[in-house]
Amino acid sequence: MNRLLVRSVRACAAAAAALVAVPAALAQNAPADKPGAAAGLEEITVTARRREEALQSVPMAVTAFSQNTLAVVGATDLSALAEIAPSVTLEPSRATNSTLTAFIRGVGQQDPLAGFEQGVALYLDDVYIARPQGALLDVYDVERIEVLRGPQGTLYGRNAVGGAIKYVTRRLSAEPDLRFRATYGSYDQLDLVGVGSLPLGDMFRVGGAVAYLTRDGYGDNRTTGEGNYDKDVLAFRASAEFLPTDDLLVRLAYDNTDDDSAPVAGYRPFPGAVSGAPVLGDLRDTLAGAADLPSTAGIDGRQQVQSEGLSLTVDWDLGDSWLLRSITAWREDETESVIDFDSLAVMDFDAPVIYDNEQFSQELQAIYRSGPLNAVLGFYYLDATASNDFDVVLGQLAGGAGVTAYTGGKGVDTEAWSLFADVTYDITDQWAVSVGGRYTEDERKADIFRANYLGIGSPFFGNDAAQLLAVTSDYTASRTYDNFSPRFNVSYELNSEVIFYAGYSQGWKAGSFDPRGANFLTPQVEKGYDPETLDSYETGVKATWAGGRVRTNVALFYSDYQDMQIPGSVGVDTDGDGVNDNFVGTVTNAGKSKIQGIELEGFWLITDRLTGQLAASFLDTEIEKWIVGGVNVANDRTIQNTPETMIYAGLDYGLDFASGTLTLHADWMYKSEIVQFEISNKYIDQDAYDLVNASVIWESGDGHWWLGLHGRNLTDEDVKTAGYCFGTPDLTGCPSSLGLENNLTVFYGPPRTYSATLGYRF
Questions:
Q1: Does the domain at residues 2-761 carry the CATH identifier 2.40.170.20?
Q2: What's the pTM?
């Protein structure tokens, strides 16, 4: 790590060293909210270890974002967190607005198909969300969001290899509470949010939130006339709390999201090889016509994501020592999606897709707290079904008659249970040790069917005239995986302001089955792919300095990543005519990788009115062993979606203004080059870039009114977030081609935007 350490030290010196702070404290300290108040930083309370603790006392790498923090920076969904939190990548997946691609410390998963589990666990009020569809949550009814970096398993329901994100909604108020918020911005953005709660006596409270979030497209679809990258989301949440005694809390919650945004298509850096379609001048425009073509008639060319969930949480406090908790939850989502791989008006490479996911989970916890001993004992059960049906329509083959490859079946079922425990013992007033363990058993069952047809579309998507050419995969299989994962941590509290810690934890993710695998061609597909394991070693220090005016958090980690699961697909030529007319999945387990790095966070109260923030991560990643066809190809592979360098810096200035308080905020974020897939491609990969944002927030003296003005990506950077690579290999560098139009497409993040928000609290 010598090179990494040198780079980190230089970066810290350039940032004046002292300015390392917790960005989550933004807008949470008394002086920024009330200029002239006593200097000091307010503690942020988190539940990263299943009990309420001050963030600075938790001996692990955690970043927390309060509701005020998110409002000040103008965050609208989870992806904004990746600009502030070290070692984190959060993006919309290819061709979607609301499917989440998440990576933490180089660990994640960007394939949304059934059979592939995410490497970063997402929790909504302690309920694990098993599938990525609809998981790019909008920020409209949130108390805080916690980002836990590194393996999580001995404290949580699901074993997470890379880390966990906890989205925590607000508890209902004991007093009547009603809030409204309206936002208008660039591209006719119009967001309307209402949140309220009402106590019905001393024991019962009801509440809810509704959000209508709309925006025209950042670009235009020049074929269909719709916007590209638009937004049309209606979401609501209803909850009720029953408190029959001081020791018992029953919380029932239901959420529903309906995303009717238009299909998203990528930008083509190459002209159409057959059609001659030109390269467009605007990176966010498209010529994609799949939504209006016969290729997607089976779903009426429709793009829609519907998700809902119901949870029941019961907390029973048995006195000074024990708390019993039950979390029962059900979730379901269904997606109909139009994917236009060629992004052209012609029907070359199109895909109608249906995702259908359902899950039931039950978690039981026994939390012990007495004297020097704190413990969490838990049981977790998950029953989940993930299915997908999709056509790959190659409409220009067979003399224009078209060839369709259908993939479907009943999908992949998961039935998993686990026992976990984590115990912390304070040996002395300064020394504490934590020991945890988790036993998991996952059973995967797959029912996969794939077939090739002559014609535009398969019988599943309504083309009964399609002629069956060949069945390429038809099997059912099951496999059970089990694992024991340990955790160990020791911490030393030098004094009330400085804590050192060191620890080891293991993350594990079960294997599964590739729904794109062709078992007739490669029978080993029926055996599934193997689990992956990550051993993480971490040490760090959390400190408060200068009489409470400076906080610094530093974490160093080393991860040994074994059998990393890497899905993919390549075109194949089934009839030997030199043109790929089908595709197969290529899931492999990369034998060995290492990921190491340094993460910095901090907050500096420069004056009673001026605060500064800095977050940074400096990573060193390497795939050391990846065997393909008996050859180690590791030297030609890279850890995806993981920039080696990330730096965030922000300033806040608070002052009295117009019978209220005014907060001026500005921030800058830098990320080095990002490789989208394991094989680098200059057309899809994102070069190093900067983002600059600014906000002005005014709040009335009585706290009823507030006004926010936000500018994001002020330098109008064009940031690549994803892509499809099926172009001609010698021209585009793609592993293989599919379709005839040289199909490489790139997706981009938002351009420069401005918005104004007016809020009122009763």
A1: yes
A2: 0.93
